């Protein structure tokens, strides 16, 4: 049972001065909100974050640090449920800890997605959420530096109309984007396979190939995380502070009983200090939960918001019945293939995005029909795997059908392929320089979950990604894998490589069978580190947790602003969209502040 929290004398002494806003988590999204809210000197903002100030950590700011930063104190490095990795140990999900959150350790790729993928959010019960509405926020968040002539020649093209030049998040091209013979070789090979050079991957259409911007400061040639963007420049403001701590739960103004019609009101948060003391911080206006897709559900469950059956088993009193909390976890799976490089491996990375028609060719109509017929059985499988009465099969099917329409009617891209040399990819084995591709199915149908393991296990989420629960997800990865092999076997890039080394010929021979393709992809998969959807912005009867203003249903003053609210995957990398969503959320909150 959860101990009842009494405000004893000691606890009362620990009460800090009340603040107007508390942001839970100084991560990618949370610091955007904290920055925007504290622009108004008359409001006070506290951010609570377990990690610390990492501005002087070279693994955080150097371009190639992110290969080594995983597993250090800046990475929560969560164990995953489900099949172990190739080393027999649980697969790990990296997630950043510290001022900047996961932006401290990510791969820096800045790509938004396809218009139709964001327009679909509107169809999930979110009026006003679509590409048109997001575009001004993408631009507001961005400070784009155009590529040099040599980088344009290397493939880094852009369309000025789609970029912002006054935001906080620096985007541009690091020194690793170089004009070498790799670029024409890649370009001519993709063109030979029928793909076009995409002028700008951030224009709302990602089909084709290009060299995307990264979240970097090209002048200093360093990574640009959310703290560099949103916090260090304003840290001298007197109305904002970061408190080191881990939030256990939100506290409520109302006593037990039926929640009021306008929703229940948060009046503070309870957090653990690094030395294990429990403290309470009183909040006058709003609580913003930004602990990330893997941790926000834990904070909500700890606060009594979630699936009644799960809360009961944890001994936590129900405050708001929202069975979608922690469900709808969607990540992608990443696979690598690599070949021995005949020439100096280049450091430029090319992204290519392909549709189902590109992947399945003449088989497309058959694939479209068989997947459409499977939607209801997939929905049932997702419901069964999740258990605890969390999901409704009809609601899940509505979501899968929308996704099927995106893939097969709206022709959005289904796979991403990043091609590069070994120098910047962690590809290959040992010292052999390699060329290769990392690739993934962008729109998996499988759904996983994340929940509290026990009422006190706030640092140890039970994450079950359920990769490839839906077999089509694996087939789409395999189709992308076949395209990757075809690419590296096509001229002129074929001239740059000899024998394949990842995987070895024993695993995937030239004439590999369908079973060999599938078992390779099943065994070699790594998480793609894009988990989202665990407190989705969606109609409540579809399993949604927050409304279109990102407020938790049945609460008056608690919002979620992080990857948890993104209800679906899309053909992008998450930070570009998170920065835009957090800017928009800040407007919602400030609008409300003005009305009051
Ligand atoms: C290895 C890797 C590579 C990636 N590559 C890319 C890429 O190239 N491009 C891209 O766009 N995206 C990439 N991503 C994904 C992207 O970085 C994340 O989706 C994004 O940063 C998540 O932002 P967020 O605001 O949702 O959460 P986070 O940035 O994770 O912030 C959550 C914060 O909350 C804190 N917290 C957790 N629990 C609590 C609690 N109980 N109380 C208080 N605070 C708490 C955490 O310490 C953290 O600081 C990558 C991710 C990883 C791991
Ligand atoms: C890019 O490289 C090619 C081949 O070396 C060269 O001809 C061209 O001038 C370079 N372009 C720029 C802008 O540096
Ligand atoms: C590109 O192809 C040309 C012709 O085969 C070759 O000379 C050059 O080294 C290749 N470049 C790379 C980076 O593979
Ligand atoms: C999608 O592609 C199919 C053929 O692959 C085509 O018939 C259809 O018109 C396309 N739809 C859109 C919206 O582009």
TrEMBL record:
<feature type="active site" description="Proton donor">
    <location>
        <position position="530"/>
    </location>
</feature>
<feature type="active site" description="Proton acceptor">
    <location>
        <position position="573"/>
    </location>
</feature>
<feature type="signal peptide">
    <location>
        <begin position="1"/>
        <end position="16"/>
    </location>
</feature>
<dbReference type="InterPro" id="IPR000172">
    <property type="entry name" value="GMC_OxRdtase_N"/>
</dbReference>
<protein>
    <submittedName>
        <fullName>Related to alcohol oxidase</fullName>
    </submittedName>
</protein>
<keyword id="KW-0732">Signal</keyword>
<feature type="domain" description="Glucose-methanol-choline oxidoreductase N-terminal">
    <location>
        <begin position="96"/>
        <end position="119"/>
    </location>
</feature>
<dbReference type="InterPro" id="IPR036188">
    <property type="entry name" value="FAD/NAD-bd_sf"/>
</dbReference>
<feature type="binding site">
    <location>
        <position position="247"/>
    </location>
    <ligand>
        <name>FAD</name>
    </ligand>
</feature>
<dbReference type="Pfam" id="PF05199">
    <property type="entry name" value="GMC_oxred_C"/>
</dbReference>
<dbReference type="Pfam" id="PF00732">
    <property type="entry name" value="GMC_oxred_N"/>
</dbReference>
<dbReference type="InterPro" id="IPR012132">
    <property type="entry name" value="GMC_OxRdtase"/>
</dbReference>
<dbReference type="GO" id="GO:0016614">
    <property type="term" value="F:oxidoreductase activity, acting on CH-OH group of donors"/>
</dbReference>
<dbReference type="InterPro" id="IPR007867">
    <property type="entry name" value="GMC_OxRtase_C"/>
</dbReference>
<keyword id="KW-0274">FAD</keyword>
<dbReference type="GO" id="GO:0050660">
    <property type="term" value="F:flavin adenine dinucleotide binding"/>
</dbReference>
<keyword id="KW-0560">Oxidoreductase</keyword>
<dbReference type="InterPro" id="IPR027424">
    <property type="entry name" value="Glucose_Oxidase_domain_2"/>
</dbReference>
<feature type="binding site">
    <location>
        <begin position="28"/>
        <end position="29"/>
    </location>
    <ligand>
        <name>FAD</name>
    </ligand>
</feature>
<feature type="binding site">
    <location>
        <position position="102"/>
    </location>
    <ligand>
        <name>FAD</name>
    </ligand>
</feature>
<comment type="similarity">
    <text>Belongs to the GMC oxidoreductase family.</text>
</comment>
<keyword id="KW-0285">Flavoprotein</keyword>
<feature type="domain" description="Glucose-methanol-choline oxidoreductase N-terminal">
    <location>
        <begin position="292"/>
        <end position="306"/>
    </location>
</feature>
């Amino acid at each position: 049972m959860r101990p009842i929290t009494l405000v004893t004398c000691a606890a009362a002494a620990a009460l800090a001065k009340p603040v107007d806003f508390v942001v839970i988590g100084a991560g990618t999204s949370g610091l955007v909100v904290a920055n925007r809210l504290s622009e108004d000197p008359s409001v006070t903002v506290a951010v609570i974050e377990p990690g610390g100030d990492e501005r002087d950590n070279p693994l955080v700011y150097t371009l190639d640090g992110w290969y080594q930063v995983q597993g250090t104190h800046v990475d929560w490095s969560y164990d995953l449920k489900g099949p172990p990795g190739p080393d027999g140990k649980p697969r790990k999900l990296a997630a950043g800890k510290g001022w900047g959150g996961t932006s401290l350790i990510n791969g820096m790729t800045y790509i938004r997605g396809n218009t139709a993928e964001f327009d679909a959010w509107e169809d999930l019960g979110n009026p006003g959420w679509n590409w048109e509405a997001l575009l001004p926020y993408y631009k507001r968040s961005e400070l784009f530096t155009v590529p040099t002539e040599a980088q344009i020649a290397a493939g880094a093209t852009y369309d000025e109309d789609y970029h912002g030049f006054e935001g906080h998040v620096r985007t541009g091209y690091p020194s690793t984007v170089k004009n070498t013979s790799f670029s024409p070789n890649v370009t001519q090979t993709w063109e030979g396979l029928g793909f076009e050079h995409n002028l700008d991957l951030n224009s709302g259409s990602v089909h084709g190939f290009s060299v995307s911007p990264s979240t970097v400061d090209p002048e200093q040639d360093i990574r640009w995380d959310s703290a560099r963007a949103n916090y260090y420049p304003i840290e001298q403001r007197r109305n904002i502070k970061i408190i080191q701590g881990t939030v256990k739960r939100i506290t409520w103004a109302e006593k037990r009983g039926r929640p009021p019609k306008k929703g229940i009101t948060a009046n503070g948060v309870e957090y653990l200090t690094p030395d294990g003391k429990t403290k309470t911080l009183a909040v006058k206006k709003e609580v913003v939960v930004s602990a990330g897709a893997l941790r926000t559900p834990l904070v909500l469950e700890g606060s009594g918001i979630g699936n009644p059956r799960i809360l009961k088993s944890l001994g936590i009193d129900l405050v708001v019945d929202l069975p979608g909390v922690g469900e709808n976890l969607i990540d992608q799976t990443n696979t690598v293939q690599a070949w021995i490089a005949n020439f100096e491996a280049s450091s430029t990375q090319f992204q290519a995005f392909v549709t189902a028609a590109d992947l399945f060719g003449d088989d497309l109509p058959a694939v479209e029909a068989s997947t459409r017929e499977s939607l209801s059985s997939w929905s049932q499988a997702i419901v069964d795997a999740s258990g605890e009465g969390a999901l409704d099969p009809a609601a899940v099917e509505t979501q899968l059908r929308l996704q099927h329409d995106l893939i097969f009617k709206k022709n959005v891209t289904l796979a991403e392929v990043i091609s590069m040399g070994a120098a910047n990819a962690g590809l290959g084995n040992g010292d052999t320089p390699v060329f290769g591709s990392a690739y993934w199915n962008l729109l998996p149908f499988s759904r996983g979950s994340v929940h509290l393991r026990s009422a006190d296990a706030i640092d140890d989420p039970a994450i079950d990604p359920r990769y490839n629960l839906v077999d089509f997800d694996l087939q789409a990865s395999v189709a992308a894998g076949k395209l990757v092999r075809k690419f590296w076997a096509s001229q002129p890039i074929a001239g740059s490589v000899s024998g394949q080394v990842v995987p070895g010929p024993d695993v995937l021979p030239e004439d590999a069978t369908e079973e060999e393709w599938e078992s390779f992809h099943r065994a070699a998969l790594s998480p793609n580190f894009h988990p989202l959807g665990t407190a989705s912005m969606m109609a409540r009867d579809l399993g949604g947790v927050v409304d279109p203003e990102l407020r938790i249903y049945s609460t008056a003053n608690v919002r979620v602003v992080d990857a948890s609210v993104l209800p679906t995957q899309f053909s992008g990398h998450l930070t570009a969209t998170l920065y835009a969503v957090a800017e928009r959320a800040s407007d919602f909150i400030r609008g409300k502040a003005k009305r009051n």
